[in-house]
Design a protein that fits this description.
mainly beta; 0% helix
Length: 202
Amino acid sequence: AEDDAWMWTNSSGVFRFRGLPSGACDVHAEGWRLEQIEPDHFVKLTWMAHRRGVAAGTAGLVFVLDPGLRQTGRIVDPSGRPLAGSVFGHDPSLAGNAGMVLGEANSAGDFTVQSLTPGRWEFVAQRKGFLSARRTVDVPSAEPLVFVLEPGASIRGVVLDERSTPLPKAQVMAQAYGPGQGDLAESDARGEFVLVGLSAGP
């Protein structure tokens, strides 16, 4: 948002915002580290905390970051074959990206999303070439989430200049009307491109 401000803490964990508008604001603190889940696959683990209605001029504000709750699950295709992919969790009560967390499914399709707070969360599973799937869950949930991703449609084509010469490295984007799913691709040395994971229809 236009009035958002952010900063890094110093080596002692201290931060100070200057020049904020008068009145109250919401403050979000976030820390992270990388954790290896496969020999060549790392996932970003995030710790978050929020304080709402903090008055401008407040001093001594303390955030205690902890891993929070976890939600496990699996991503598969319609035949049950596991899929590696990404899972985004979003707290709908928070604006923008403040309540966004990310989990990565490994080659077995298994994922864990952490840093969750109790309450209702929206989860979206994605993998290139497939249509994304969305679930709303009350956290904590004892049941693992299972996402079944359907293959999307594709569009193939070629990009040419005014002399009908193939153009490499051209950006091609498909944008769906309404809530559909699009894609972004780059043309190869022959000017050819493939857009995948598209919603059916215009």
